[in-house]
């Protein structure tokens, strides 16, 4: 499952480069939102900002107050109380 998600992210990222950044490596806002909605764990995904210096930034740094955090936390607490 992890390999499937990683491949999907790589595919979407390569498509977003052509459509949104012209090769900059920075995903557009819609792509950032999509990555976050796939899994809350994606907030730790590193995105290459500068190829020459190898500078990276995490998705969480790009979206520090993502609206879905509350919703995922609520779903997790509800699923734990059901078990």
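-> sequence recovered:
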């Amino acid at each position: 499952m992890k390999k499937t998600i990683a491949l999907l992210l790589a595919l979407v990222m390569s498509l977003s480069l052509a459509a949104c950044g012209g090769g900059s490596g920075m995903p557009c806002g819609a792509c950032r939102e999509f990555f976050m909605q796939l899994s809350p764990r994606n907030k730790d995904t590193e995105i290459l900002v500068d190829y020459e210096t190898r500078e990276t930034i995490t998705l969480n740094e790009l979206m520090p107050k993502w609206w879905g955090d509350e919703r995922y936390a609520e779903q997790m607490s509800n699923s734990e109380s059901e078990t």
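The chain has a mean pLDDT of 77.
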